[in-house]
Specification:
alpha+beta; 6-stranded antiparallel barrel; 423 residues; 5-stranded mixed sheet; 13 helices; 24% strand; 15 strands
Length: 423
């Protein structure tokens, strides 16, 4: 039963159908070229590529194994026709002749121009208002991409995006203004992601973006770029200078770290989106199942941080914990923004890298005091960072506290500790 469901998923996968239609439009003309191309696709996507090819050309439904069997006979028929006829016969004629005269499975076949087929397919798979892919296309593609990520042992990141306070916007501005806003948000979203990424309207004011071959750190960068692009677009500010622009909250999850299936990936990204909403909106939140209290330890670590599409800036920590950093910087980031940080730990050759969310910014005499929350670190860097914190607690590293002499922490004279909640 599971094998049958898997076949149906791939058969009607719009992503696979798109590739088949593109091949029919611009692919090989001779039989040898098609043999080579289909073998490559079979290795990449499985036997169901033959099902999709025959379904697109004839609308006949075969299993993968049966479709490959028919494909072999179509090739024999194709070669036979080319030997008997003076003109070269293309794939469409060979398939039509095989199912009309040999198998007799087609009674009254209709000829359809591929451009019309492509247009009809696009209209069925695109959202009419935003011109992004629709929910049906998204469901097909996430299943296909999740299976491919598992098969090739690569990462896949999903962004779930929701427009903040859109119901209030719709109620006060009207549905026409709401539709215009949705189109503008979709346009900003599409411009902010790569061509290889897939953006879809998930439903209502919610959108989804699939990022193939993208780890969590890369997904966080894309998500922050999307958030900033929509905020800077000033959508909804047209009614006057006091009008606040529309913003979005974004949750994301990644395979294989956060989920093992397409269904789990959607659930985890959606849960992260809920957390982003609860944290004040207009922010990015990766999925995490950790919720704990951490001790803040006064210590100085040199490093640098960089915002999305920004230069690097020097930082000096005031205190650190497993959940966040408090540091000084000459440059003030925006509250809620994400920053990628590199920390040079004492006696360590490699830096520790992570992604932080800026929680507060306070002007001080030498610049700005910035409170942040660690929202992502690789397992390797997280382990090294935690070892560093344990050494501070045990008095095994020298702490350089701002405005004081360097001193060694001891069990009797521990650094001042405070607790902080992290999500």
């Amino acid at each position: 039963m599971k094998r049958q469901e898997k076949r149906q998923d791939t058969k009607f996968s719009s992503a696979v159908a798109d590739r088949i239609v593109a091949l029919l439009e611009e692919g090989p003309l001779e039989a040898a070229g098609w043999v080579k191309t289909m073998k490559r696709l079979e290795k990449e996507l499985g036997l169901d590529v033959y099902s999709v090819l025959l379904f697109v050309l004839t609308h006949l439904d075969f299993s993968g194994a049966k479709a490959r069997e028919h494909w072999g006979r179509v090739l024999d028929q194709w070669n036979d026709l080319n030997e008997r006829l003076q003109d070269e016969v293309d794939l469409r004629v060979a398939v039509l002749h095989y199912f009309l005269r040999v198998q007799r499975k087609l009674k009254n076949p209709a000829i359809v121009e591929l451009k019309i087929l492509r247009k009809t397919q696009d209209s069925a798979l695109r959202d009419e208002l935003t011109q992004l892919h629709n929910f049906r296309h998204f469901q097909d593609q996430i299943r296909t991409e999740a299976r491919r990520a598992e098969r090739e042992d690569v990462t896949l990141t999903l962004l779930m995006i929701d427009i903040d306070n859109f119901k209030l916007f719709n109620d006060t501005r009207g549905h026409l203004a709401g539709n215009v806003a949705l189109r503008r948000v979709a346009g900003a979203l599409k411009r902010a992601v790569r061509e290889t990424d897939s953006a879809a309207r998930y439903g209502g004011e919610e959108f989804a973006v699939l990022l193939p071959h993208t780890p969590k750190v890369g997904g966080l960068k894309v998500a922050e770029k999307v958030r900033l692009a929509i905020e800077k677009a000033g959508i909804g500010r047209e009614k006057g200078p006091d009008g606040k622009p529309l913003t979005v909250s974004i949750g994301l999850a990644t395979t294989p770290g956060d989920a093992s299936s397409a269904k789990e990936l959607i659930e985890r990204a959606d849960r992260a989106l809920y957390v982003a909403k609860s944290m004040g909106k207009n922010c990015v939140q990766p999925y995490s199942d950790e919720r704990r209290e951490h001790n803040r330890l006064d210590t100085v670590v040199a490093g640098q941080f960089s915002l999305v599409d920004s230069n690097s800036h020097v930082l000096t920590t005031l205190n650190v914990s497993e959940g966040g950093l408090l540091f000084l910087s000459e440059e003030p980031p925006t509250r809620g923004s994400l920053a990628q940080v590199q920390l040079a730990l004492p006696n360590e050759k490699e830096t520790v890298e992570g992604v932080l969310r800026v929680m507060r910014v306070r002007p001080v005499q030498d610049g700005y005091e910035i409170g942040t929350q660690i929202i992502h670190m690789s397992r390797h860097d997280r382990r090294r960072f935690n070892v560093f914190l344990r050494k501070i607690k045990k008095g095994e590293v020298i702490q350089l506290l701002p405005g004081r002499r360097a001193r060694r922490s001891t069990p009797r004279r521990k650094a001042r500790a405070r607790t902080a909640k992290t999500a």
